[in-house]
Design goal:
alpha/beta, Rossmann fold, 10 strands, globular, binds zinc ion
Amino acid sequence: MTEQLQPMPEDWQRALAIVAHPDDLEYGAAAAVASWIDGGREVAYVLATRGEAGIATMDPARAARVREREQRASAAVVGVSAVEFLDHPDGVIEYGPALRRDLAAAIRRHRPELVITLNHRDTFGPTAWNTPDHKAVGRAALDAAADAGNRWIFPDLLEEGLQPWEGVRWVAVAASPQATHAVDAGPGMERAVRSLLEHRAYIDALTDTDPETYVRDFLTWATRSAAERFGGRPAVAFELFPR
Ligand SMILES: [Zn+2]
């Protein structure tokens, strides 16, 4: 029998979600974010890029503006008002100290107990290769959770007044092929649908399917796949790394 997904920890107050692109959180995790905010938690979003290379029919300068607006609107649907962009280059984000430093700085600014990121592994599952940006940002987020607490790594952050933060207790990786934990998707599902629908320019360029049908079908499929290991309840699954 396949191992069951455990409920996500609930004894925390602040989460910081760190992902590469506008829409990364809306392809699943937003349903969990909505229910965390219902429960009185604070959640902020940090995006490494503005997703400027994500729309084939739109030049990057314009796409950056459109996608930033869409990301802020989609965050607002689930109750998130803090949305930051780090302006790494979409499609060619480099994993390394510069990225880790920016993410460690964000963690020190927001002082979360829980860091959320997107799949850092090579694939999303059999035959589904992951993108370089997701891998770079996911790995750097896992690393930065520790970097943020070490005052001797990135000493220039201290000069900027960012004190070490050792309070990250978990990093939870959404869309990992090695999920261990889950959140009931039911309460946040309708907001998750509307949240992903806010990425309208992106979705219109992606598919000829009616946007609401496309979004609902995707989120229903994703949350039902996790349900098989979560007592039959549609769920948002995470691979949890305790620290
Ligand atoms: Zn992405």
